[in-house]
Amino acid sequence: MTYLEDIHPEESAYFKKLRAFAAKKDIPIITLETMRFLRQLLIMKKPKKILEIGTAMGFSACFFASVLPGVKITTIERDPAMQALAEATFSASPYEASITLLKEDALDIDTTTTPKPIDFIFIDGAKAQNIKFFEKFEKQLNPNGLIVVDNVLFHDMIDQKITSKNLRQLIGKIDRFNRYITQKQGYDTAIHAIGDGLAVAIKQGE
Ligand SMILES: C[S@@+](CC[C@H](N)C(=O)[O-])C[C@H]1O[C@@H](n2cnc3c(N)ncnc32)[C@H](O)[C@@H]1O
Hints:
Layout: H1 3-7, H2 13-24, H3 32-45, E1 49-53, H4 59-67, E2 72-77, H5 80-91, E3 99-103, E4 118-123, H6 130-137, E5 141-150, H7 165-183, E6 187-192, E7 198-203
Parallel strand pairs: 1-2, 1-4, 2-3, 4-5
Antiparallel strand pairs: 5-7, 6-7
Bound molecules: S-adenosylmethionine.
Residues 28-30, 53-54, 56, 59-60, 76-79, 82, 105-107, 124-126, 129 line the site of S-adenosylmethionine.
């Protein structure tokens, strides 16, 4: 156990059980460190509507709902196996009423039909598509709203020499996104070495 895991309160039994299931099935979900940071952002920001890209089994959506009773979460997942797992997670959870699962590719969604304006967007889908996700959904974000993107340091490989061509291409796309988001006009952005790397972009107010 790391020092930080040792000194913070343990994860609740509910999320521990979901995390153990994710580990058993090899489903990537937010780390404990990421959860602690996101919890603080959510408490400070108090979003009324959250949009998530990349539901997987529904762990992070349930976590958001647990932090903010009454919040409305729309979460998008394209993989039918994950959609089925997420539906099972939501219906067995106390958070079902807060969460809407859209079973589509996020890049195919008709945004005229999705809830808006959004106060908090969590991008956690295919890492090579981050710029497309950002450009598609940022239009729906309220001024002073937040866009948080996970895995932007990609297992600390972002500045390493990688031999595999596919991995090098993926890392190149993540690097391009990181440069794009840190320089994006109209946003104040910082990348934090938390969990697998989190970008936090705050949309400038009007
Ligand atoms: C890292 S997992 C999400 C983990 C989840 N946010 C959590 O922490 O519990 C990424 C998920 O995004 C989904 N995904 C990837 N690209 C997508 C897209 N374009 N549209 C919808 N879902 C996508 C994948 O199928 C996968 O289940």
